[in-house]
Design goal:
By secondary structure, the chain is of the alpha/beta class. 42% of the residues lie in helices and 20% in strands.
Length: 187
């Protein structure tokens, strides 16, 4: 079984990338592939550009990667209360290949930020729009004050309440994937 984990951000130091990878790796018995949105950089979407040039190879490659996965762990960065420009552009291009580009995959949606909001606005938007794009969100978790909650040196969530919530969300995804050993994830 394969989980595709990525941040909906193109930051080279993305805390959302670290969170997505951390949570995906907590699920035993799966292969985790981590994507970097910088590998899918394309011109800004427009219908005119699409008519003139067709679909960029990067959008087709991203769509193919989604299709190869059994489940998704996506952590959404928030810019001005909404999606990052990099994610919105990739979403726009990929949804022209197939509006339901997540291909009915079970997904765990996350969001984090340095501040107390924990990317809740964008996480709410992403969760609400997920069915439109063919994702089955089994859980969503907001992690406020990432630097206070996560110890990167030890790959450890220091806040017990947040750690428990992430473990429960990972267990729900594992259960939806049909994995048997889920009880120990949530404990």
């Amino acid at each position: 079984m394969k989980i595709l984990a990525f941040a909906a951000s193109n930051s080279s130091t993305s805390i959302n990338q670290r969170l997505a990878r951390h949570v995906a790796r907590r699920i035993p018995g799966v292969e985790v592939e981590t994507l970097d949105l910088n590998d899918y950089e394309m011109p800004i979407f427009s219908e005119q550009r699409e008519r003139r040039s067709g679909q960029p190879a990067e959008a087709r490659d991203f769509y193919r990667k989604l299709g190869e996965a059994d489940a998704l762990v996506i952590s959404f960065a928030e810019h001005n209360g909404t999606y990052t420009a990099a994610w919105k552009n990739l979403l726009d291009w990929t949804s022209r290949i197939d509006r339901r580009f997540f291909q009915q995959k079970p997904a765990l949606y996350l969001g984090t930020s340095p501040g107390g909001g924990g990317a809740q606005s964008v996480l709410s938007q992403a969760t609400a729009s997920a069915p439109h794009f063919g994702a089955e969100v089994v859980a969503s978790v907001s992690v406020p004050r990432f630097q206070d909650s996560y110890d990167g040196a030890r790959d450890f969530v220091a806040d017990p309440a947040i750690d428990r919530e992430l473990a429960q969300a990972a267990a729900l995804l594992a259960e939806r994937m049909g994995l048997r050993e889920i009880r120990r994830l949530a404990s």
